[in-house]
Amino acid sequence: MDLIQFVDQEFAAETAELPKFGAGDTVTVSYKIREGSKERIQNYRGVVIQVRGREKTKTFTVRKMSGNIGVERIFPLYSPFIDKIEVNKHGKVRRKRIFYLRELTGKKARIKEKRY
User: Fold this and answer.
1) Residue pLDDT, tens place only, 16-64
2) Rounded to an integer, what distance in angstroms lies between the CA atom of residue 56 and that of residue 38?
3) Which of 91, 88, 86, 73 is closest to 33 using CA atoms?
4) Burial of 101 (0-12, 13-18, 19+ CB in 10 A)
5) What is the pLDDT of residue 15?
């Protein structure tokens, strides 16, 4: 039991660093990439279209436009390869999963910013 509690405490320490975000928010994910013996950090900026899972198995999907092509990437929230997650904008959406964004292009695909 001691080992399990220790691992849970380690995971709890990692969770404190992550910001709160949800669907519609624009985030920049700094992801570590290993190429041979070298390691570099790649930034992936896009709109969160869904957050799913619970606790340690939570994942989130980020969609960005690369030229005219939409690219989606799924990140495990508690992955050791994620260096940091930075929330750029909080979007105002009514849904938890905004898959309708896939069919929209141009100005229609914009998300209003949440006011505080």
Assistant:
1) 578 899 999 999 999 999 999 999 999 999 999 999 999 889 999 999 9
2) 28
3) 73
4) buried
5) 53
Spatial distance between the Cα atoms of 9 and 67, rounded to a whole number of angstroms: 43
- Whole-model pTM? 0.79
Instruction: Copy the structure tokens of residue 4.
Output: 């399990």
Is the separation of the CB atoms in 21 and 50 below 8 Å? Answer: no
What number of other Cβ atoms are within 10 A of residue 72's Cβ? 14
A 10 A CB-CB count for 29 gives 21
- Tell me the CA distances in angstroms from 26 to 16, 19, 45, 61, one per residue in order: 20, 12, 7, 11
Question: Tell me, what amino acid is at 97?
Answer: R
CA–centroid distance for 58 within its chain: 10
Q: Over 50-76, what HEC string results?
A: EEECCHHHCEEEEEEEECCEEEEEEEE
Both structure tokens of 114: 């949440």
